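Subject: for your reference before the review

Hello V.,

The reviewers asked for a structural picture of the protein, and I figured it would be easier to keep everything in one thread rather than splitting it across files. Below is the amino acid sequence we used in the manuscript, unchanged from the supplementary table.
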Amino acid sequence: MWIFVMAAFIIQALGTECHSCFLKRPVNPEVLLSASQIICYWKYPLEVHEVETADSYILTLHRIPYGRAGNKVPGQRPVIFLQHGLLSSAVTWISNLPNNSLAFILADAGFDVWMGNSRGNTYSLKHATLSTNSKEYWAFSFDEMARYDLPASIDYIVKKTGQKIYYVGHSQGTLIGFLAFSTLPELSQKVKALYALAPGISIKHTRSLPFRLLFMMRQSMLKMMRITSDGSAGGGGLYDGKVEELLLGNKDVLPETAITKFLATTVCNNKITGVICGKIILSFYGFNPKNINMSRIDVYVSHGLQGTSSQNLLHYAQSFHDIENVTRAYDYGTRKENLAHYNQPTPPRYNLSSMRVPIALWSGQKDLVTDPEDVAILVSQIPNLIYHKTLPKYTHLDFIFGVNAPEDIYNEIINMIKKSQ
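And here is what came back from the structure prediction:
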């Protein structure tokens, strides 16, 4: 991230004269708007709800109960819940124009749309007792998102609407869905179907260079410091957390900051530097310029980093290094700590075989994060797979930002739900 910032300043310095020409373009208004403000900007109805989890985190839910003004129809509207990916937020689903953003498309198609925000992101920073300045607040990973965040959010929505939900997840949103619905049978009974975009439960084969470098750097530092780790594979790793604190700290990582707003409004709003911004950022996930609206790059940059915990990224690193290539609960590093949390010396393995929720998948051959090999591993574990579509040219972000996503994916989801009514 800091390399990109330095490069941006260099580009800005070299391109000062170009800014005085006709290369600079207007900043999209959504760049400086919050999720709620974006929804209102496009004249959709909005409700903002707060729900408290069993471990006292307070999450924000954004709701679009129906389509644009005048589109409210009588009768019960199917309820659909959208869960974003790693480092993202509800803005994921409303970053494009209304005819290209999944949340808006669903609302206009007659759905009651709810959008979740995982603990620790821009919109879910509250806690009943803990401050975000404490490391105790940030002691969570996708384990807690599956165990606490989804049950609290889904239970609240079901109680509020009186209906079971349809669930759409992107990336980490699919992961926590798989974990929650395979370990919490009562929760899975409240879900009619799961529609998974860029799905993953393992990132063993990820080709995303930043993630691979981070994960391999951690492993190298463990060896250099002569601290052993079993990679969550059953040997009872011994490390004291120094490596993690050196790499990521012990609180939050990559939160929304003024830097991203600066990049969006001052650097990436130029016809030349905008393309460079897009290539640098999107290439982390796989870059398909033909399926991205390059005029929206400033919006993607502005809302691209919404924060998570360092422990969450560490959990992904543990999964990456797992020698058995399975997904386990978070490894606390010592037999004593694991015994205290799990009543066993090593973290338990997640098993999807008991999951009964019908699942439809859309995966991309050019996805650098959830690699096709990892998707194949996931598919082999799903007991109730009703549909799987592989998109040869899709990258990780095409599923949420792609100009062809409505035709390739969103309309299929809508038609599947309508047929199931």
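For the response letter, the relevant points are probably these. The chain has a mean pLDDT of 87. The first helix runs from residue 2 to 14.

Happy to draft the paragraph if you're swamped.

O.
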